[in-house]
Amino acid sequence: MLLLTGEVPMPTKVPMPTKKARAIGFNHIALEVGDLDEALAFYGRLFEFELRGRDEDAVFIDLGDQFIALQKGRKQPADDGRHFGLVVDDKEAVRQALIAAGIEIVPGPFLDFLDPWGNRIEIVGYQNIQFTKAPNVLRGMGLAHLKKTTGAIKELAEKGMAPE
Prior knowledge:
Structural class: alpha/beta
Distance between the termini: 58 Å
Radius of gyration: 21 Å
CATH class of the domain at 28-128: Alpha Beta
Number of strands: 8
């Protein structure tokens, strides 16, 4: 509704729903990259992965029951604090691959790096954090051998989520 008096109309008050959905996880992360083949080559130097799919504008890297979508067309500047934590089975192997590829590790207490398009990624070791994959998903990924540290199990136990 446009008012001719120059007043800004107040939004109509919408009642809050009585039940809200609960956020429970991520299905995928989408990153914008300049070129799909270059992105696959770059990430292939750092990680072992399988493609879930590909089309003209995106490739999809399989993470078991999740995925990363690499989409053609990065336009914004490089990320600073904005990042996501990518959980891996061997954090030190990623560190060594970054060094071998000549990729600068972002200074700080974590293992962060920027890809060639400015996406900031923090590498997180599976065994040290609360994040878990269901045993059937780990088995399907060939990672049934992964175990949690005592500290991670304690954090999970405090929430009633310790592995059995």
